[in-house]
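Side project, low priority. Logging it here so it doesn't get lost.
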Amino acid sequence: MTPQQTVWKALADPTRRGIIRTLKADSKTAGAIADEFPMTRASLSHHFNVLKAADLVRTERRGQHIVYSLNTSVLDDVAAILMDLFAPAGEDDKETL
C-alpha cells in the first residue's frame, strides 16, 4: 500500500476522523482522548496505530504517558489534494464537446 493509500484508509474511518478533530485544538494524552470515545482502550489503540502508520499523528512519551499531536504537514498535503480535486475547472481544464 502506498503512503497516500494509507492516509486515505486512515481518514475513511469516522472514529479516526474524530480523533483528528480532538487533536485539532491541542496535543492530548491517550487517556484524555480515550475519555472522549465510548470504546475500549484496545479498540482506540488500534485506531492510534492506524493514524501513526499513516503519519497523521505523532507521539511523544512524557513519563508514563503517551501524548498524541497532529502531523500538520501530512494534513496540509491532504488538504491540498482535496482543494485541487474540487477546485473550479479553469479554461484549460474544460473538456471540449
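Brief comment: The mean pLDDT is 88.
Revisit when time allows.
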